[in-house]
Design a protein that fits this description.
The complex is a heterodimer of chains A (135) and B (361).
Chain A (H helix, E strand, L loop, with lengths): L4 H12 L4 H11 L3 H8 L13 E6 L2 H5 L2 H12 L12 E6 L11 E3 L2 E3 L4 H11 L1
Parallel strand pairs in A: 1-2
Antiparallel strand pairs in A: 1-3, 3-4
Helix pairs in contact in A: 1-2
Chain B lengths: L8 H8 L3 H11 L11 H10 L4 E7 L8 H8 L1 H15 L1 E7 L7 H10 L4 E5 L9 H8 L23 E5 H12 L7 E8 L5 E6 L4 H6 L8 E3 L6 E3 H4 L6 H6 L8 E5 L3 H15 L5 H18 L5 H13 L6 H16 L1 H7 L2
Parallel strand pairs in B: 1-2, 1-4, 2-3, 5-9
Antiparallel strand pairs in B: 5-6, 7-8, 7-9
Classes of the chains: A alpha+beta (135), B alpha/beta (361).
């Protein structure tokens, strides 16, 4: 029986926010796939972090349709508000910030994702308001 | 919109009772070709898969990653039932097991799709991607479903012969499959209509269904563009100056004659500086390159470095020359990702050469 490794990795990520080594070891035994192979796969994908991340993963689209509608300003504003830059996590491990390739919301740009949720037609104020609500 | 057509339940049932060969014949006759960008004849792909030996797979490619493209999401949100009917018909015609490869960015649509699959009593598995543009490429997508790094495979063997788990595999785009039930039941089905994703500096961005053959300015006018300088045909189809090309006929033949690619009909209208646009595109490709081949991995990286320098006003004539050379070399990349990257850069340098030169000492 062929297994769907991405499904399994996604399940672990959903539970822990990242791919915890202990869980990958278990998965490796369950699927009879060497641990290194699981890391090999995971390290390829933007959405499968192998290091702990913030409880809320904020991803701001930085492609041209969003850029045309001011995504750069929003990113700058969030950097200032959270005091981190893309790739970093706040000290309290609540928020991680990243830029992302197009998320297909170009008709409601600028847009961002927080975990699996989409937020569109953002303004600087709106973006901070959304994040404050999560605090 | 034609793409929002819903066929009657009993018509769907009657299609599902048709002989597989008859269905494939009808799809071939219709002239339907892949709407994901590559434009391979759908009926022929079905026939090739069906003729191959072993358990077949049909994968619906919902990994819509081309920046500025959101038509497949539009279909999933607005006519999911017809899409799933298309998958069911394909599965019947090919005697195939079905999967949907849904991009990770669209994972919030998964519950809705699962619910509809259940309601329609279909057997379709959804595999969610995890944020990798290259998975839109057929063989990378297969690698990804198999749980590996999404690195493209050599072809041949083609997926229709040896695809997912070495089985014959047919991969069709969302828009392609949604058209199948419609073309089988609607005598007036029009193969000339396309879904245009229009975004950027326009007042009314969105998905518009329009016929091929209109002028670029006619198409963009529906979205009420602001003052725009450049139009990006996605990230891989080329960057063109709007003024020079506003009367360009938008169809596949005219585009290929002009060395442009219409792909999945993506138009990003922009009023930004060309070096900024080019740098943004380069950043995207460097991030999304899988690292398999040298031209894309190293050449792509070097192009970005040069563009950063030029955008900052520190570029020299020598840098510009090197940028031109490198964008030529990208053509020998292993897959369409690197080729598209080079293609985009070359069109920028060709049509906006003056602006680049002005920025370089």
């Amino acid at each position: 029986m062929n297994s769907y490794v991405l499904d399994e990795l996604e399940r672990i990520k959903k539970r822990y926010g990242y791919l915890k080594e202990k869980e990958l070891v278990k998965l490796s035994k369950k699927l009879k796939i060497p641990l290194i192979k699981l890391y090999e796969t995971a390290s390829f994908y933007s959405f499968l972090p192998t290091e702990p991340k913030g409880r809320y993963m904020i991803r701001i689209c930085n492609n041209l349709p969003c850029m045309a509608k001011g995504s750069e300003k929003i990113l700058k504003h969030l950097e200032k508000f959270l005091k981190i830059i893309p790739g970093e996590t706040t000290e309290d491990r609540k928020f991680s910030l990243e830029t992302t390739s197009c998320i297909g919301c170009c008709d409601k740009a600028p847009a961002m994702m927080i975990n699996d949720k989409i937020y569109t037609n953002l303004t600087e104020k709106e973006a901070v308001k959304i994040i404050k609500k999560l605090k | 919109m034609q793409i929002l057509t819903k066929i009657k339940e009993k018509d769907f049932e009657s299609i599902m009772k048709m002989r597989p060969n008859k269905i494939i014949e009808r799809v071939k006759e219709s002239g339907l070709a892949g709407r994901g960008g590559a434009g391979f004849p759908t009926g022929m792909k079905w026939e090739l898969t069906r003729k191959a030996e072993g358990q077949k797979f049909l994968i619906c490619n919902a990994d819509e990653g081309e920046p500025g493209t959101f038509k497949d999401k539009f279909i999933i949100e607005n006519n999911l039932e017809t899409l799933l009917q298309g998958i069911a018909i394909g599965s019947h015609a090919l005697e195939a097991k079905c999967l949907i490869y849904l991009r990770g960015e669209y994972s919030y649509l998964k519950p809705k799709i699962e619910k509809m699959i259940k309601k329609m009593k279909l057997n379709v598995k959804i595999v969610t991607g995890a944020g990798a543009y290259i998975c839109g490429e057929e063989t990378s997508l297969i690698e990804s479903v198999e749980g590996k790094r999404a690195v493209p495979r050599s072809r041949p063997p083609y997926p229709t012969v040896e695809g997912l788990w070495k089985r014959p595999t047919c991969i069709n785009n969302v828009e392609t499959l949604t058209n199948v039930p419609i073309l089988l039941k609607d005598k007036n089905w029009n193969n000339n209509l396309r879904l245009f994703s229009i975004s950027g500096n326009v007042k009314k961005p969105g998905v518009y269904e329009l016929p091929l053959g209109l002028e670029l300015k006619e198409i963009l006018s529906v979205s009420e563009p602001e003052e725009i300088r450049a139009v990006c045909l996605g990230y891989s189809g080329g960057i063109i100056p709007f003024d020079k090309f506003k009367n360009l006929k938008v169809d596949y033949k005219t585009f290929s004659e002009k060395s442009l690619m219409l792909g999945s009909c993506t138009l990003i209208a922009l009023n930004k500086d060309i070096t900024k646009i080019a740098k943004n595109i380069a950043e995207f490709f460097v991030h999304e390159s899988c690292g398999k081949c040298l031209p894309c991995r190293e050449g792509g990286f070097k192009i970005l470095e040069l563009l950063k320098k030029i955008e900052n006003g520190k570029g020299t004539k020598k840098d510009l020359k090197e940028l031109k050379e490198l964008s030529e070399y990208m053509d020998i990349s292993f897959c369409a990702l690197g080729v598209g990257y080079g293609f985009s850069m070359r069109s920028a340098l060709k049509y906006f050469g003056k602006e680049f030169e002005e920025k370089c000492r």
